[in-house]
Amino acid sequence: MTVLRTSLRNFFAHKGRMALSAVAVLLSVAFVCGTLVFTDTMNTTFDKLFAVTAADVTVSPKAAKADGTPGRGIPDSMPASALTRVRATTGVKSVQGGVSSVSVTVVDRDNRAMGSSTGAPTIAGNWTGNELKSMEITSGHAPHGPAEVMVDADTAHKHHLALGDELRTIAQTGDLTARISGIATFKVTNPGAAIVWFDTPTAQRELLGNTGRFTQLDVTAAAGVSDARLKRDVTRALTGSGSYKIQTAKENADENRKSVGQFMNVIRYAMLGFAGVAFLVGIFLIINTFSMLVAQRTREIGLMRAIGSSRRQVNRSVLVEALLLGVIGSALGVGAGVGIAVGLMKLMSSLGMELSTRDLTVKATTPVAGVLLGVVVTVLAAYLPARRAGKVSPMAALRDAGTPADGRAGKVRAVIGLVLTGAGTAALFAAAGAKKASEGSAVLGLGVVLTLIGFVAVGPLLAGGVVRVISAVLLRVFGPVGRMAERNALRNPRRTGATGAALMIGLALVACLSVVGSSMVASATDELDRSVGADFIVQGAQQPIVPQAVQAVQHTPGLAHVTRYKVVDATLTSPDGKADTSGVRATDATYVDDVRRTTTAGSLRAAYGDDAMSVGSDYARKHGVHVGDTVSVAFAGGRTAKLRVAAVTSDDTSLDKGVRYIGMGTLQKYVPKDRIPPDMMVLAKAGNGRAKQAYTALKASLRKYPQYQVRDQTDYKKELKDQVGQLLNMVYGLLALAIVVAVLGVVNTLALSVVERTREIGLLRAIGLSRRQLRRMIRLESVVIALFGALLGLGLGMGWGATAQRLLALEGLKVLEIPWPTIIGVFIGSAFVGLFAALIPAFRAGRMNVLAAIATE
What we know:
Mean pLDDT: 85
Shape: globular
Family: Belongs to the ABC-4 integral membrane protein family.
Organism: Streptomyces tropicalis
Keywords: Cell membrane, Membrane, Transmembrane, Transmembrane helix
Protein name: FtsX-like permease family protein
Strand content: 15-25%
Structural class: alpha+beta
Radius of gyration: 34 Å
Pfam families: FtsX, MacB_PCD
Distance between the termini: 28 Å
């Protein structure tokens, strides 16, 4: 009880300092809990949707992919005879034939696409009784005939659609214009998909290109028949009539959940990674707080030891304070985390992915994990200061001699730091010299960890030299005040090192990602300049290009030629008997002029001859393939061909690395017309001196197809830069949490340092130092500490980024570019961070009563 009372008294005696540390714990725990609640809520939303929409048994073509598009833009389907067989099966109450496609674009009369901006699909299908499980018609009526279409209420609300409005659906089989006959509302949350429904004959004709076919059958069991039994009976009924995938409701929901879960896991682990960085930064704040509190209570600890307190009791007293800090900060963090999750849900809803707070999911494990993590991290961070407090001898403490063995511990720490930094640097050099990116990435990770820990450990040693250099450049102009700020920063190198290290971690990641991002953009730009001869590139957002859009491009005036580019599913068997399922690319022969591929053997133009192909140099080396050899190519949906290797293309590139090319004639020879995949990209070359006119004409030709973008090389480079920039900005936003925690660390360090130097400040004021000069001294000290951390962080991050670029060079991204404007901007911004962090400590120091400060023990 005595230990608890002492801990409580000390805790509340320094509640301001503890509050700053608690905020660091709160922010870190809030980010963890917010991430868990947000992703759990998204999983709940999808689980409800899958559970409601899944039939007792679902039948679909076995070849169908998860997204419904086997690379040709038209979903795989089954004949209506399968529905007849299933309907006659014992145990079947009813069966509905479904038609669904995600390879569609829906536009309004103003040619604006109705799709979601969050990546959720646009789905077109037929309206059946199965839809009533998850939907209800709240306005109008179901579609009848090709002139009518029904739309979901969320899409209608977002795009201000009403009954009678005209919508155009663009599919591989053609365009269909219809008027809205009804609006259907979800009974569960729609995660953001835009959905339109037609009647069944229209959906079959317009989405599948053939009536009397379905993409799936939704089977309902009769009373008393289990899903497992129904599946067995349906399987038996369909045996011998084709190849089908037959799933129970649970199996279907589990498959859908798995595909969504992969995406959700990426989000979860990425966000938890940033939360881990914030926790790491928070550890330095907590260590600093307790180290300084212990140092300030040296005499008090000596008195406690003198009257009989054991080392264990002193140690326990400090750890109990840390426990209180962890519990309070973590408890508040759990509540804040729920708030963060709700905020993220609102943000996603504004972007088009609907997430209802009715589905808010806070699992019991979430608050437990948050509190446990916060408490454990806080107590572990306070362990070293607590242990140091327990070592204080009564006589040394009463003489205010400080803690023992500081010098020796500092030397050991410096040696360990230098060893780790040296080992980490060696690992980075080894990674830079790796022959394969996959092998070098693990060595790079090791180098990053070792150099980070090494810099943290050697920070106090570096503080002396680096702070002096920064002070010589920046503080000398401030005269005596600047020199006093420098001495204050150097007074306790361990404290300065720990405070700077907190800022160093976040800025190192910022610098590393900036270097990698800039190098990627510069490399891709260089590759475009060297390798792409086409003037224009037409692409969709991961959607194939419909034939009518390709025809529009081909009929555009001012173009010298148009090159189609198809991704073809195929299995290649090399002369050594090894199979490869990564397929081939079929293009027009003009691709040779549009993309300048380097060949190591043969001629790429010859690969467009009859029964010819090219292979990549890595494939050729791995399988011993040479020009003139024959490779067996089994085309999906077509025949197997024996193709002669006419060229080996260099894989020392990032553009189409490893791609095998064939001509359109070869594709048409071995694959039936109705199984030939659509174009994934179209390249075009303008006639001599007509690039500007052709660009304008091409955009006009594709105005009816807003899902496709027309870009010249300048547009392509700009978009690439913008995409990388958006990704980096999102990462910087997440890293801002670590920066905020680091700023709190600087504030806490300065605040405790001001308290520690109360008497000294009083004496300085007594001999003539003004309030303004005092505040300036503290601000300058803060700026020096911030710049110290920034210098270490930016230097370390640029080293990581340069090494990562060497690995990317193995994948063809060969240009190293240091984004100096960003680096310099961050460094200057760090000075302002230091100024901001010093505002409150400097203000409090300036308000001190001079006589009271001098009288302080």
